[in-house]
Design a protein that fits this description.
single chain, 358 residues, Rossmann fold, Helix Hairpins, Heat Shock Protein 90, five-stranded parallel β-sheet, 50% helix
Length: 358
């Protein structure tokens, strides 16, 4: 069965659009949904609010060329870009490939078979690169978690030593005191010592490698459990909830830890939607080649690039309260499942978390 794909064609010649569209419809590798834009300005607007699996762009587009597109959009996106041209100049071939094009196809020799091969190679190459990037990213983040954990244990030790002395001293004061007026103040000290101790414990646990109790489960059941725990907040905030739970593979999951991940992502989405008109949360699950992919998406306030890059760092937070360990804990749990999590976000557009269990 062909893979489904969204393809953007940037082509200023309508005849060439019909020609390329005809070849795409004959493609045996993908079943494409084609969007056609006739210039780079129109394409830029389309790409602001849409994601595509492949972009086809004509080399000459009025006063601009495919190189302009590669040097602007291509530098900030991992969407494969295939350049189409009426030229046979080998120097252009090399130039566009050096600037990040996935392929370079002369129109005069273009056939359905050649386009099929190009799509197949491009998509599979992207999957391989994404897999390698995930491995590198995961290794880097696990190293960071290990370093943070070592620092956390050291800091915790330094905090707990004086806390122990405070506990012992206040217990002795309580035993020696005959003044009942002092009891409320002793209780305040005890409660706050305990609070500090709890914070230190959470601090350490957020950086610890987790030991999971794995069993074969359907991820949809855990998603539904998380939704059930958040349904009152979803209802109170008049949030539309859209579900498309298609994953049916049984995979190794921990039914105690994973609900924390999904619940926290839903709660974060609810917070991001507070000042949004027509607030919406979409949760999808799909089977992928080696496992399952789960997507949490909202149309809330979104994040800027700086916030997104720091999101999974331990102790990073923009909230008035909290330690900033929620997202690092989520990542830790996902990593423990041998999975990985990615985030895409735009300010005033929304945020999308994708979790892969492979």
């Amino acid at each position: 069965m062909p893979n489904k794909a969204k393809v953007l064609l940037i082509e200023d010649d309508e005849d060439d659009y019909f020609f390329v569209n005809h070849l795409i419809q004959k493609n045996s590798y993908i079943k494409a949904k084609l969007t056609w834009n006739s210039n780079l300005e129109e394409a830029t607007k389309t790409l602001e609010n849409n994601e595509f699996d492949i972009i086809l762009v004509d080399y000459y587009l009025g006063k601009k060329t495919a190189l302009d597109f590669l040097n602007s959009y291509g530098k900030t996106s991992n969407t494969p870009i295939i350049v189409l041209t009426g030229l046979t100049d080998r120097s252009k071939d090399i130039e566009v490939m050096n600037n990040g094009a996935a392929d370079y196809l002369p129109k005069e020799t273009l056939t359905a078979g050649i386009l099929d091969r190009s799509f197949r190679y491009t998509i599979e190459h992207k999957k391989t690169q994404e897999h390698l990037n995930r491995i590198r990213e995961k290794a880097s983040k696990q190293e960071k978690i290990a370093t943070t954990g070592k620092m956390a244990r050291s800091i915790a030790h330094e905090i707990r030593n004086p806390l122990t002395n405070i506990n012992l001293s206040i217990a002795e004061v309580a035993n020696l005191s005959t003044n009942k007026d002092q009891e409320p103040f002793i209780d305040i000290i005890n409660r706050n010592v305990q609070k500090i101790n709890t914070i230190v414990t959470d601090f350490i646990n957020s950086t610890k490698p987790l030991e999971l109790k794995l069993q074969k489960l359907c991820v949809n059941d855990i998603i539904k459990e998380a939704i059930e725990s958040c349904k009152d907040s979803i209802s109170l905030n008049n949030i539309s909830l859209e579900l498309e739970l298609k994953a049916d593979k049984q995979i190794e999951l921990d039914n105690k830890q994973l609900p924390l991940v999904f619940t926290n992502l839903i709660k974060n989405a609810i917070e991001a939607l507070k000042d949004t008109s027509n607030p919406k949360i979409c949760i999808d699950s799909i089977n992928i080649q080696n496992g399952v992919k789960v997507i949490f998406q909202d149309n809330g306030c979104g994040m800027d690039e700086n916030t997104k890059n720091k999101l999974f760092n331990s102790f990073f937070t923009q909230k008035k309260e909290g330690l900033g360990i929620g997202m690092s804990t989520i990542q830790n749990i996902v990593f423990a499942h041998n999975g990985h999590i990615t985030v895409n976000s735009k300010v005033n557009v929304g945020t999308k978390f994708s979790i892969y269990f492979e």
